[in-house]
UniProtKB/TrEMBL annotation, chain A:
It comes from the Bacteria. Residues 1-22 form the signal peptide. Pfam families: SBP_bac_8. GO terms for cellular component: periplasmic space. PANTHER family: ARABINOSE-BINDING PROTEIN-RELATED, BLR3389 PROTEIN. It is found in: Periplasm. This is Extracellular solute-binding protein. The lineage of its organism: Bacteria, Pseudomonadati, Pseudomonadota, Gammaproteobacteria, Oceanospirillales. Keywords: Signal.
From TrEMBL, chain B:
This is sn-glycerol-3-phosphate ABC transporter ATP-binding protein UgpC. Keywords: ATP-binding, Nucleotide-binding, Sugar transport, Transport. Coiled coil: none annotated. It comes from Marinomonas arctica. Pfam families: ABC_tran, TOBE_2.
Automatic annotation (TrEMBL), chain C:
It comes from Marinomonas arctica. Pfam families: BPD_transp_1. This is sn-glycerol-3-phosphate transport system permease protein UgpE. The complex is composed of two ATP-binding proteins (UgpC), two transmembrane proteins (UgpA and UgpE) and a solute-binding protein (UgpB). Residues 76-267 form the ABC transmembrane type-1 domain. The chain crosses the membrane at residues 16-37, 75-100, 112-132, 144-165, 186-208, 246-267. The keyword Transport applies. The lineage of its organism: Bacteria, Pseudomonadati, Pseudomonadota, Gammaproteobacteria, Oceanospirillales. Coiled coil: none annotated.
Length: 436, 366, 281
């Protein structure tokens, strides 16, 4: 009875003075999927696994810690930009949205993103707290437009068991990776002779993104200025030709798997069908878990490294990443403060997110013991400094990636000559950028 | 219940095309009238105007003393049986018959009574729960008639209702329709292009031709005294033979005409002074001819086709100059195609048509 | 109406046809069987290789995971509301419009009909931005009405129903007019029941199209509780579902297609008629 009375009083108070309601709701829109069944109520972050599990638990925990803030999560199909565009058009954009660094310029250049410098400053977060790879990707015109959440890149996932068979392990059991195109071909031949399997496991069917990512990496390693003018791509130089020639030679010399789509490439490596999988950061956890189980191709024989330096000019690798942006909209100071709290919470838990396999963006996490003790992370930590994005001003990076991937793919598969492919790619990209 | 129908000065035009031109017709209460004519003569249009399915350009229609051409179809008190029957395919026989009554809020027990009575008369009471898809053509026809009967209309309108039936069924249904008319005593209008139906069913036949009424009369009047060459040729099977007249000679009993290929034919017809002899013809029905012995007087007919009908034999032949003539012989005729026979013509039965198609008949009854 | 003979003797009497049909059937069924197989396997096992589909053990855990997500039922209901609402709306409007075009005399009838037919040639892509803007003005996004409304103007439906009404002999209307039925009663009690085969065809196509619709719901229903099943299921896929969650993906596909399968089972006869084009009997 007493409880009922109290409840009634509370309700009537609420009804009388809506202003007394201090609750703030943050509309958060993200990809990474839904996993309510497993993590719907979980708040133990350290127990969560995988992108979906960790982000879901993070939000749950934040809500538990901040009872006055409600985070209303909307999951969207990856990458969710159609939906976001529609929301922006109808002025119903959410408060916080997950966004690839490579997509940000499209929104920022049209003034659709809110600069976050003040929000971060309010939480005592400084730009210098983040890794170069991360903060440079989210900084446009000297303003920070996203809370950098992670960096991801293509890596060399290595099957040590097969490498051993090919005599490509050092005495202390580390794989000997190529450090130039010549060593790559030599080792590839050696590997093939010993195992009768291709050296590299690459994604080459149904998806062209990996062509573009590898190409960007090879260009960056030559310190190429192919986007010197962010409104024009320049693929006419020898650097582009060298990069593509290398990619094509790998296939022509039989050093790579062929015709595998993404899932097939993932399982081909898991089944020991090749020595090195050229694939993303996100697979570390999966392969590492497999290597700890007995009686499979990766048992006790998995390691992972950044894509080696094939050109001498620069140690670089193309990296993208996920950040949290705040779309343009009317928000109260109260809400912006709540968003700041949420961002601080994400920042504080950057380590937990790095357990997904993605690289952390917070410097002190990279150097922390906890991160280094995660499997293989010390081997790839340098991506935080060598990781490089396309120039922040380049628009339509998703579309550009498609065009380049498509054209390079047709050169690698000998449907087009190298010159022809580069010329067409350049023409199509510039045509796209001119007609925005 | 039943009522007379008056059609006054009805004209129907579609844009510049005239379909019916100043039609006047009075149909007595209880009369069975058949509109007969070739297709396109406007007979169906006239019927549909009575039903309210076609608008009227000029004129009026009355049923009883009430003008009805301004009323919607459903309120004219007429029932129609369509050529295609137009039963509602998704309704049972009973529902088909009761639909119209439900629409005018007849009490349910009254509906049941009328439907059951009509079904009994038409011998379709065992089909009441079937849908049209499971009925034969004849059965559908009966249901269509039943749907009309239950409405107890002032007049029944039939639009070529027998044309979708096979020959045997058509003959039987014709008879039943005649009986139905006797039994109900209702005013009925029946549209057909089949002269046999017209002859057997009608109290009066209305012959329509070229947007106009050509002749109104009892079947026998129409048959024996066609007002025009058109009527004479349209009514009667086989059609009346038409022989071109070369010369006319007046005699006391009538005129003697000279027919090409046949020589002189004596008739009992008196022609007026202003007779238009140009393109005039003499018309002879097959039954008004007879095959006689070669010694007797007559025309020589070379037979092309022999049509044996059992009770009589029709001989299709040509006269010496190629003019066609149809003659009749007895059922036991031995005449074969290719033979030449002598044909005599009954002088009183011939008809003369002037150049305008206007008919002149013998004054004496045959 | 031509009757089909499905007896085995009849089918096998034309051996070539039988084998062609059998091969085509297998080709069409293979992906379905494959996806059902995937849905019954553990995700981790599939990651190593999809040939695992052919071996024990099988599990229902993927289906359990779908059902445990509390949002799925909401999305399912949304899809149902949208699909059924659209179906009823399209049937109603197309029937009325079809009747009007086939039977009523009104000014500009032919012109209007041609304009409607032009609608068949206008792709959704051409109008979607303007439509999105309009719905924004009227504040219709994230509502069931907003999801149902755009597809109610079905050019195909109007065309189909017009043709169907035209195919009904005019004498049926005339008989009903003589039976003193009002225009509406003729439409409702006499003609509409006769269009049932067309209604079934149009209804099934509309339902399937609405159920599978993706693009408009994607940009109109941007709030998770307004998602239709297609959007909801897509949104709940993790980024690497195609490798790490293949079994779950399969289960989602099977789950989402269940209503379609049910519709097919119930309306099989009408679908066959619809597809074979012999809608008028």
């Amino acid at each position: 009875m007493k409880r009922l009375l109290l409840g009634t009083t509370a309700i009537s108070l609420l009804a009388l003075s809506p202003l007394a309601n201090a609750n703030t709701t943050i509309e958060l829109q993200r990809f990474f999927g839904a996993c309510e069944a497993e993590y719907g109520k979980a708040t133990d972050i350290s127990a969560a696994v995988g992108e979906c599990g960790i982000i879901t638990t993070l939000v749950n925990k934040f809500e538990a810690d901040n009872p006055d803030i409600k985070v209303n999560v909307t999951t969207v199909e990856w990458p969710g930009y159609d939906q976001l565009n529609a929301q922006l058009a109808s002025r119903s954009a959410p408060d916080v949205v997950s966004m690839h660094y490579s997509a940000m310029s499209d929104y920022q250049s049209r003034g659709l993103l809110v600069p976050l410098d003040d929000v971060l400053k309010g939480q005592n977060i400084k730009a210098s707290d983040f890794t170069d790879a991360a903060i440079s990707s989210v900084t446009k015109e000297n303003k920070v437009y996203a809370l950098p959440f992670d960096n991801w890149t293509m890596l060399f996932h290595v099957n040590n068991n097969l490498m051993k068979k090919a005599d490509l392990l050092t005495a202390d059991g580390k794989p000997i990776l190529p450090n130039s195109s010549d060593t790559l071909f030599a080792q590839g031949e050696q590997f093939k002779r010993a195992t009768n399997k291709p050296f590299l496991v690459q994604i080459s069917a149904n998806e062209t993104a990996s062509y573009a990512r590898i190409f960007y990496t090879l260009m960056m390693q030559q310190d190429s200025k192919f986007f010197d003018d962010p409104n024009r791509i320049d693929l006419s130089g020898n650097d582009a030709k060298a990069a593509l020639t290398l990619m094509k030679d790998i296939v022509d010399k039989g050093l790579s798997t062929q015709d595998l789509d993404y899932p097939a490439a993932v399982s081909a490596f898991a089944n020991g069908d090749g020595g090195i999988a050229v694939n993303g950061t996100w697979l570390i956890g999966t392969y590492d878990a497999q290597s700890k189980e007995p009686n499979n191709a990766l048992s006790d024989g998995y390691s992972v490294f950044p894509v080696p330096q094939f050109f001498q000019q620069k140690d670089a690798t193309y990296a993208d990443g996920h950040g949290w942006v705040v779309p343009r909209g009317d928000r109260t100071d109260e809400k912006m403060a709540a968003i700041g709290k949420l961002f601080k919470f994400f920042y504080d838990n950057n380590y937990e997110w790095s357990r997904t396999g993605h690289l952390p963006t917070v410097k002190k996490v990279i150097t922390s013991e906890a991160f280094k003790s995660l499997p293989h992370r010390s081997d790839i930590a340098k991506v935080a400094t060598t990781g490089q994005a396309l120039p922040a001003e380049v628009l339509r990076q998703f579309a550009i990636q498609d065009i380049i991937g498509e054209e390079l793919g047709s050169a690698v598969n000998s449907d087009k000559s190298i010159d022809d492919a580069l010329k067409t790619a350049q023409y199509r990209v510039n045509d796209l950028l001119e007609n925005i | 219940m039943s009522a007379s129908i008056s059609i006054k000065n009805i004209t129907k035009r579609y844009d510049s095309v005239t379909v019916l031109d100043d039609i006047n017709l009075h149909i007595e209460d209880g009369e069975f009238v058949v509109f007969l004519g070739p297709s396109g003569c406007g007979k169906s249009t006239l019927l549909r105007m009575i039903a309210g399915l076609e608008s009227i350009t000029e004129g009026s229609i009355e049923i009883g003393d009430k003008r009805i051409d301004t009323l919607p179809s459903g309120q004219r008190g007429v029932a129609m049986v369509f050529q295609s029957y137009a039963l509602y395919p998704h309704m049972t026989t009973r529902q088909n018959m009761s639909f119209g009554l439900e629409n005018v809020n007849v009490a349910q027990d009254e509906i049941d009574r009328r439907v059951n009575d009509a079904a009994k008369i038409l011998e379709i009471d065992h089909l009441l729960d079937r849908k049209p898809g499971r009925l034969s053509g004849g059965q559908r026809q009966r249901v269509a008639i039943g749907r009309a009967i239950v409405k107890e209309p002032k007049a029944f309108l039939f639009d070529e209702p027998l044309s979708n039936l096979d020959a045997a069924l058509r003959g039987r249904t014709r008879l039943e329709l005649a009986q139905l008319h006797q039994r109900l005593g209702s005013t009925m209008i029946f549209v057909t292009h089949d002269q046999v139906e017209a002859m057997t069913l009608a109290d009066r036949i209305v012959i329509m031709h070229k947007q106009k009424i050509e002749q109104i009369g009892t079947p026998m009047e129409i048959y024996q005294h066609p007002v025009s060459r058109f009527v004479a040729e349209f009514v009667g099977s086989p059609p009346m033979s038409m022989l071109p007249i070369n010369h006319i000679e007046n005699t006391v009993d009538g005129v003697t005409v000279e027919v090409s290929g046949a020589g002189k034919v004596v008739t009992a017809i008196t022609l007026p002074q202003d007779f238009n002899a140009k393109d005039a013809v003499i018309g002879i029905r097959a039954e008004d001819t007879a095959i006689v012995s070669p010694q007797e007087e007559g025309l020589d007919l070379t037979i092309k086709v022999v049509e044996r009908l059992g009770d009589r034999t029709l001989l299709y032949g040509t006269l010496v100059d190629g003019t066609e003539l149809i003659a009749e012989d007895t059922g036991r005729s031995k005449v074969k195609a290719g033979e030449t026979v002598r044909v005599s013509i009954s002088p009183h039965a011939a008809h003369i048509f002037d150049g305008n198609g206007l008919a002149h008949h013998s004054q004496r009854e045959v | 109406m031509k009757t089909m003979n499905y007896s085995p003797e009849h089918l096998t009497s034309n051996r070539h046809l039988f084998w062609i049909a059998a091969v085509l059937g297998v080709i069409m069924m293979a992906p379905v069987a494959w996806i059902i197989g995937l849905s019954l396997k553990d995700n981790a096992e599939l990651l190593k290789g999809t040939e695992a589909v052919f071996a024990m053990p099988y599990t229902l855990v993927n289906y359990a995971n779908i059902l445990e997500s509390s949002s799925v039922f909401g999305w399912f209901i949304n899809s149902m509301i949208v699909a059924i609402g659209q179906t009823i709306g399209v049937l109603l409007l197309s029937s009325l419009a079809g009747y009007a075009f086939a039977r009523l005399e009104f000014p500009f009838r032919k012109t209007l009909f041609i304009i409607v037919l032009f609608g068949l040639a206008v792709p959704e892509q051409a109008v979607i931005i303007a439509r999105h803007q309009m719905f924004n003005w009227f504040d219709l996004h994230n509502t069931h009405i907003g999801l149902i409304l755009p597809n109610l103007s079905s050019a195909f439906g109007v065309f189909l129903m017009t043709q169907f009404f035209r195919a009904i002999p005019k004498e049926i209307d005339e008989a009903a007019m003589l039976d003193n039925a009002s225009t509406f009663r003729i439409f409702w009690k006499v003609l509409l029941p006769l269009t049932l085969p067309a209604q079934a065809t149009l209804g099934i196509f509309t339902f399937l199209q609405a159920w599978n619709d993706y693009w408009w719901p994607l940009i109109s229903a941007t709030k998770a509780d307004m998602y239709t099943l297609t959007i909801g299921i897509a949104s709940s896929q993790t980024n690497f579902a195609q490798s790490e969650g293949l079994g779950f993906l399969g289960a989602q596909a099977v789950f989402a297609s269940l209503p379609v399968v049910i519709v097919y089972i119930f309306f099989q006869r009408h679908i066959v008629t619809a597809v074979s084009g012999g809608a008028v009997k």
